[in-house]
Amino acid sequence: MLFSEKNPNPREYSPLALAYIGDTLFDLYIRTRILERGNRKVTDMHRLAVSYVRAESQAEMARFLEAEVLDSEEADVFKWGRNAKVNTHPKWASLLDYHLATGFETLLGYLYLNGRQERLEEILDRAYAKFNEE
Question: Do the domain assignments include residue 54?
Fold first, then answer.
């Protein structure tokens, strides 16, 4: 775990709370991968990061992961997040993509709080690689 030595039970949190931390994890992962590509203008790096972290891109990654990567526990957590009741969604994203992105972020938060760093990195790496091959 990055910041805490205690290992909270992720099932004690709502799926939206898990998505809250998962969103941050994904953003940090993407920004780190972009930085690894070399130094460039911050505005260019930001534009590239947005292309990954927007709901449509996360939904695409989620569809791939759900179909080919997730085990049954992870699929259940993803569905728990995907089916969470949200009161609003961004105008620039469809409701379906927003729900899929929320499921993806919920899974990331769940793995993080479970201390499953290796699996979290594997899922992030596979999603990133799949997104870059298309």
Answer: yes
Q: Which of 20, 15, 12 minimizes the C-alpha distance to 79? A: 15
Q: What is the pLDDT of residues 7-60, one digit of tens each?
A: 678 888 999 999 999 999 999 999 999 999 999 999 999 999 999 999 999 999
Residue 1 has pLDDT above 50, yes or no: no
Q: Is residue 5 part of a domain?
A: no
Domain count, the chain: 1
Whether the Cβ atoms of residue 59 and residue 100 lie closer than 8 Å to each other:
yes
Name the one residue in this structure whose structure tokens are 């596979």. 126
Domain with residue 110: its CATH number is 1.10.1520.10
Nearest to 121 by CA among 5, 56, 21, 25: 25
Is 23 considered catalytic here? Answer: yes
| Catalytic-role residue among 23, 27, 44, 125 | 23
For the entire predicted model, the pTM comes to: 0.90
Q: Are 62 and 78 within 8 A, CB to CB? A: yes
Q: Are 62 and 100 in contact (CB under 8 A)?
A: yes
